[in-house]
Description:
Blueprint: H1 5-14, E1 21-28, E2 31-38, H2 43-60, E3 66-73, E4 91-98, H3 106-119, E5 124-128, H4 136-139, E6 148-152, E7 155-159, E8 161-163, E9 166-170, H5 181-197, E10 204-210, H6 217-225, E11 230-235, H7 239-253, E12 261-271, H8 288-295, E13 300-306, H9 308-315, H10 327-349, E14 357-361, E15 364-368
Helix pairs in contact: 3-10, 5-6
The protein binds adenosine-5'-diphosphate.
Amino acid sequence: MELSKKNLLSVIEKNPINDCKIINLNIFGDELLIDISTSNPTLQSKKSIENSIKKIISENIEEKLDLKINFKIEKKENPQNQIKGNPIQGIKNVIAIASGKGGVGKSTITSNIAITLAQMGFNVGILDADIYGPSIPIMFDIADARPLSVNIEGKNKMKPIESYGVKVLSIGFFTKSDQAVIWRGPMASKALNQMIFDATWGELDFLLVDLPPGTGDIHLSILQALPVTGSVIVSTPQNIALADARKGIAMFNQKSINVPVLGIVENMAFFTPNELPENKYYIFGKDGAKNLSDDMNVKFLGEVPILQSVREASDFGHPASLQENSKISLTFKEISKNLVSELVKRNKDLPPSEILKITTMAGCSAVNK
Ligand code: ADP
């Protein structure tokens, strides 16, 4: 088929691509520039549209063209989508930290990133929503503390507890550590709502939400209550952890949830014994999370080694990022900088997040934004 704008438009129209509308198309020499509107802002969806267009063109046009696509993210017309989220006054970015599997170091990474962001001069808060093991209070040495109530304009509000320059509220402040999770569950949603709506967080650049492992009810409660700006996935390089991390990414990418995944952190990437500082032992496998990030088109934010000092620092309530100029604190600085730059890109390219709307219909639940 002869190369022309009209012919290209007609072959693309004959092969409709899901959630993709061509706004404009121009050929400049061997460059093909296409403006596309779509309602799905995820990199995966953009990549899939790009691949579909490349395939259609190569099947119909002989010339080799250098394809450049400019995506415009459209809001869906569904009236449900016009309901704006409840941005929490004063909180600029809500970042959900998730892991598929438990015990991969999600809370350790959350604590260290929070402290590093605070050291960089940002106002930071942590909302610890991990009902299975709220470990943030221990890591911040505030396990025995309880938030005070302050009166603000006639209303009683909970004051987060500040430690190492980070404001913290944790589900652990509301439940007893020996209480079974089955009892903690129903209390969790109530406590979460209190921590979100009845707390005085003040001005925050970042509220990091330490989610429970997996993809369950608490995740939906958070997404319903807070307009989550983006998410970070923590995984070890091990196959069973990666399989669960993949599910976590898929949850955020789900069209109805649509929370951009800002990146993956690989924790416990390798072990280096003190006496052999040049040696690296890949106990949980090598580059697993790095490969997952390539595969799922998600930014790799960095890797954290297994270090006795990281474990000890967390257990002693003095996270490793507080060890000034140490190699590990520089690692967390690098990861935090990468996270901030992904967030800046996200806020430039995409509209603000909204909260989830969930409608339940006779035993099946539909999630809508
Ligand atoms: P999660 O929040 O995913 O359940 P935690 O952050 O509580 O995981 O970490 C689980 C355990 O692993 C804790 O004892 C923690 O101190 C330890 N840990 C986490 N990351 C590292 C690391 N990079 N090096 C050594 N120990 C670590």
